[in-house]
Amino acid sequence: MNSEQQNGGGTELGRFLRARRARVTPEEVGLTAGAGLRRTPGLRREELATLAGISIDYYVRLERGKETRPSASVVDSLARALLLEDDEHEHLRSLAARAARSAPEPPTAPSRTVRPGVKLLLESLRPHPAHLVSRTNDLLATNPGGMRLLPGIQDWPAKERNIARYLFLHPAARDLFHDWNTQVRGCVARLRALAGTDPDAPDLTRLAGELLLKSPEFARLWERYDVKGHTRGRKTFHHPEVGDLTLGYQSMELEGTPGHRLVTYYAEPGTADHDAMVLLDLLGQEQPTKRTPTHDDRSAAVADDPASPLS
């Protein structure tokens, strides 16, 4: 499935403008909606053009892909009129820059090769769960806790292990994440940002095509066209083996790679969350068990682990 099939034709810049225009109400930008039924959700083209200070004809050509070289000032004006946040504004700039370039050569899928030094780095982060992911969230390498943090993903073939696929298609994902809805919105928004700048990327088109067919939730969020960059923060897990735990996380892009990111989780030493994290690392070295460890198991695992900072 190519990018045109996925997005209904037109340019990516035009699709983004249409999607965002549909989500801004006249009242939000100080306009009076007027009497009668509005057939257009959100702003009309002429309303957005007026707010941005450009002609209606120019805006229509921009949205339809017949105008591909908007100036920086036009892009900024449209961003203000559409009430875009910083990530969305930057995404609009990227789409405009891409539209102004000639069509590139057909892209190839980026390398999945993981350097030995990165594998050593993952191992050195233990007991902190960590994994290396591609730009489309393929799980390229993990340490024991990083794999065990996502229960059931180790049962998939290595080339099918993808965090976006896990979130939408694995039966354990909804119960695992305390805020599953927030997680999937952020995941799709990051893939949408990539689709805007590299819509024909083979790795992205395969993944998006599969999820559009298999997951109505993904298809609905894909249509919304939210965009978002990678962040840091905290996640709460309802883990079937170590119980509830809340971990901080940090995502770091690795230089000299085709968009590979190192994602690591952490907890304050001396807390129950840290104990659970240590136990998760220990379990990651063993075969799966059916019994769910108790809090006493957590403390015993920490005491028996000579590498634990709590020992």
Element layout with pairings:
Elements: H1 3-7, H2 12-21, H3 45-52, H4 56-63, H5 72-81, H6 86-100, H7 116-124, E1 130-133, E2 139-142, H8 144-148, H9 163-169, H10 173-176, H11 180-197, H12 202-214, H13 216-224, E3 233-239, E4 243-253, E5 261-266, H14 272-283, H15 295-304
Antiparallel strand pairs: 1-2, 1-5, 3-4, 4-5
Helix pairs in contact: 2-6, 3-4, 3-5, 5-6, 12-13, 14-15
What does this molecule look like?
The chain is α+β, with helices and mostly antiparallel strands. It contains 15 helices and 5 strands. It has helices spanning 3-7, 12-21, 45-52, 56-63, 72-81, 86-100, 116-124, 144-148, 163-169, 173-176, 180-197, 202-214, 216-224, 272-283, 295-304; strands spanning 130-133, 139-142, 233-239, 243-253, 261-266. A 5-stranded antiparallel β-sheet has the order 2-1-5-4-3. Strand 1 and strand 2 (139-142) form a beta hairpin. It is elongated. The relative contact order is 0.12.
